[in-house]
Amino acid sequence: MSDTSDTEVIRALQAALAAEHAAVYGYGVVGGRIGTARRAEARAAYDAHRARRDALVREVRDRGARPVAAAAGYALPFPVPDADAAVRLAADLEDRVAGVYSDLVRASAGERRREAAGALREAAVRAVRWRGGSVAFPGLAERGGTPTA
Predict the structure, then answer these.
(1) Can you give the pLDDT at residue 137?
(2) What's the angle, vertex CA 38, arms to CA 128 and CA 115, rounded to 5?
(3) Is the per-residue pLDDT at 46 higher than 70?
(4) Which of 74, 91, 95, 100 satisfies CB 3.0 to 4.6 Å to 130 for a cystine?
(5) Residue 77: what are its φ and ψ, rounded to 5°?
């Protein structure tokens, strides 16, 4: 089975890369506000998103496209003045990342699809840990079937 179209896959890869850039930025905010009890968890998530971001940059380049660059800053979905808000932000970041990986799963086949499904699963698990509960369809709950790419 081959990818549906290279253009569609690259578009979904770029969206995943953009989401990873935003997650890395967001976890910088989380790390600055999170309590000491969950700081290691925030650091692990930050490192995971950095690693995924770097892998996506390489893959986009390997497919002959120019990777989308990180923005200088990102608008947060709500103010993050304390540790409770940092936890909510972390869960929100993971939900957003899961959403773009669901698009990459849909656009891909083979090993690329397995990797995207793994990334979606990892984001969903982190979201559950941050939120303390799960959603029925991680990556799809709030999207209503609308692709993000």
Answers:
(1) 57
(2) 45
(3) yes
(4) 91
(5) -70, -15
pLDDT in tens, 55-91: 999 999 999 999 999 999 999 999 999 999 999 999 9
Angstrom CA distances, 146 to 35, 58, 66, 129, 141, stand at 35, 27, 25, 26, 11
Q: How many residues does the chain have?
A: 149
| Overall pTM surpassing 0.85 (yes/no) | yes
Tell me which residue of 105, 104, 78, 103 sits closest to 90, measured CA to CA. Answer: 78
Paired tokens of 67: 């990777």
Cα atoms in the Cβ-side hemisphere of radius 13 Å centred on 3:
20
Q: For residue 93, which of 34, 12, 146 has the smallest C-alpha distance?
A: 34
Q: Which residues are CB-contacts of 133 (< 8 A; sequence separation ≥ 6)?
A: none
Helix ranges (DSSP H) in the chain = 6-33, 39-62, 83-107, 110-131
Rounded Cα distance, 128 and 82, in Å = 20
Structural domains of the chain in order of their starting residue, each with its CATH number:
6-67+78-131 (1.20.1260.10)
CA dihedral sign, ordered 75, 79, 83, 87: negative
